Structures are given as structure tokens and as C-alpha cells.
Amino acid sequence: DAKTTQPPSMDCAEGRAANLPCNHSTISGNEYVYWYRQIHSQGPQYIIHGLKNNETNEMASLIITEDRKSSTLILPHATLRDTAVYYCIVRVESTPQGAQKLVFGQGTRLTINP
Amino acid sequence: KAGVTQTPRYLIKTRGQQVTLSCSPISGHRSVSWYQQTPGQGLQFLFEYFSETQRNKGNFPGRFSGRQFSNSRSEMNVSTLELGDSALYLCASSWGPTGRETQYFGPGTRLLVL
User: Fold this and answer.
1) Which residues does chain B have within 8 Å of residue A97's beta carbon, measured at their own beta carbons?
2) B79 CA to chain A: closest CA distance, Å?
3) Inter-residue contact B17 to B114 (CB < 8 Å)
4) What is the pLDDT of residue B2?
5) What is the pLDDT along chain B (114 residues), one digit of tens a residue?
6) Contacts of B17 (CB under 8 A, 6+ apart)
7) Rounded-to-integer distance, Cα B58 and Cα A23, Å
8) What is the mean pLDDT of chain A?
9) What is the C-alpha separation between B5 and B22, in angstroms, rounded?
10) What value does the mean pLDDT take over residues A88-95?
């Protein structure tokens, strides 16, 4: 029941900006968009999240469209260490108490080329 | 601040046995979630604990169970192991009171069932 759609793979040259798209057309008004990445067989690493405004931190920028139906994760200067599977996730509140679970899709396998 | 720790990191069991995995959350975090990752099904939510109570549960059989201790450490148990239980088991912690806080993942326990 993943609520996001991502391209299965992307390539980017080292030093260039990597732009990873994500569609979440059924997102609800109070659902956040989260991005994690997973480097081969390690635990997923939190990158960034947002609700409706664009967000930036030391790792990346998150651009969310005004209608909130899609977003783009931007890695401004990609390095070889950014090669990973990137997951765009809509946090689903599945209980009346508001408890959260993360519903992962298949993600985008980003390869940074030298 | 130390991250989420999981023990053991690797485990080999045979069918029919049971296994217990342990997770220590980030200091101050009170919520622990468990996920299973397999090549075929991807990352799937198992359950979440907050203040020693199961707050959220995924669609897994009753062979999968968990608990949380007063110090927020959590264990998950799988009884009567099947070959299909071979997976990377991931634990994630968050501060937790609203159920909407960011989750941070540990390195995982890789379980192989023979």
C-alpha cells in the first residue's frame, strides 16, 4: 500500500546536482513526505521531510509542489558516497491514536558516476 | 549521541527454531518500530512500541511478536522459523509521544534461516 511512485533507477555525474522525483498524488492534507536512503544492506538513513513548504538541511533540499502531489529531492553536489537507494515515503497514520508507520515503496536506485 | 544499536548483527538459525533480536534506541527516544526487509517484499512494517505498549501493528503472522522494556529497549521474537523469514530486520527509534516524530534506523540484524 505504498502511496508513492518513483523511477526505479537514475544516474548522475559526480559533482552535479541529483534531482530525484516522487509522485504522491493521493497524499492527505496532514501527511508528511519523508526521504530516506539506504546504502547497500545498511539501515535506512533519514535525509529530510516536509509538509508543504520547501525544506533544506545540510544533506539535501526538498521541493514540494503547491498541490502537494509530487516532490523532488535535490542533492546539490553529488559524490560517489551518495550512491544508494532513495525512498520517498508518505507517513501513514494508521491508528486513531495517530501512531505512525512508514510505508516504503521500491525506491530509486541512484548511481553517481565518476 | 549514540545511534540505534541492534544485536546481534548476524544470525543463522534452522527451520523450526525461534530467535530473539534486540534493539536499543537513541537515548531519550521512547518509541521503537520494527521492519522486515526482503528482496521480494522490500521494507515492511512489523510493529511499534511506545512506553512498553504496542501502539501499531503490521500484517504479519502471530509468530512475530515483540515487547518493550521500561528503559525503552525492545526485543522482537520469531517463533517456529520458516525459510521465508530470512531477512534484514531493522529497528527504528523516535522520541515518540505523538507518534509522528522522525524515525532513525539502526544497522539491522541479518537473519538467515536454513
Assistant:
1) 55, 99
2) 24
3) no
4) 83
5) 689 999 999 999 999 999 999 999 999 999 999 999 999 888 999 999 999 999 889 999 999 999 999 999 999 999 999 999 999 999 999 987 777 788 999 999 999 999
6) B81
7) 24
8) 91
9) 8
10) 76
Sign, Cα dihedral of A37, A74, A59, A30: negative
User: Cα(B74)–Cα(B72) distance, rounded to whole angstroms?
Assistant: 6
- Cis omega (within 30 of 0) on the bond before A76? no
β strands within A14-103, DSSP E: 18-23, 33-38, 45-50, 55-56, 61-64, 70-75, 84-93, 100-102
Instruction: Please give the share of chain A, as a percent, with pLDDT higher than 90.
Output: 71
Pairing relation of β-strands A108-113 and A9-13? parallel
The number of CA neighbours under 13 Å toward the Cβ of A7 is: 11
CA distance B80 to B97: 34
* Nearest CA-CA distance, residue A12 and chain B, Å: 24
Strand partners, A41: none
What nine digits make up the cell of B60?
Answer: 504479519
Residues of A in contact with B48 (CB under 8 A): 99-101
Residue with cell 535525509: A47
Nearest to A42 among B33, B56, B107 (CB): B107
Report pLDDT for A96.
61
Q: Is A97 a residue whose pLDDT tops 70?
A: no
Q: What is the pLDDT of residue A95?
A: 64
- Give the chain B residue whose CA is nearest to the CA of A101: B45
Asked if B44 has any chain A CB less than 8 Å from its own CB, the reply is yes
